[in-house]
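User: tokens in, sequence out, please.
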């Protein structure tokens, strides 16, 4: 089946395809430009950092809520039976660390 197009139609088709190729090459040029590649990489890193920071915030918030629930009742009243031993333990550990640092210094 021979091509029934006229020379003018063939030339128009060639012009159209050249324009399409030019657009495609321009797109490739933009995508492969170092600035575009760096910008895309920065955007991906920023997205991951935001996602990781969001997860860290949620985890920290959950941890704080759990610790708070151990030392404060639902009404907001401090639970002294838990606070006093924890405070004493903290003071003891800090004291031991201070004594250890002093011994190393001497």
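Assistant: Sequence out:
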């Amino acid at each position: 089946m021979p091509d029934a197009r006229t020379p003018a139609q063939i030339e128009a088709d060639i012009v159209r395809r050249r324009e399409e190729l030019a657009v495609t090459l321009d797109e490739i040029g933009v995508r492969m430009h170092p600035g575009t590649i760096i910008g895309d990489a920065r955007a991906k890193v920023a997205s991951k950092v935001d996602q990781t920071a969001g997860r860290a915030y949620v985890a920290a918030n959950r941890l704080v809520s759990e610790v708070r629930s151990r030392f404060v009742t639902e009404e907001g009243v401090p639970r002294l039976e838990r606070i006093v031993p924890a405070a004493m333990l903290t003071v003891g550990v800090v004291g031991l660390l201070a004594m250890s640092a002093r011994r190393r210094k001497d």
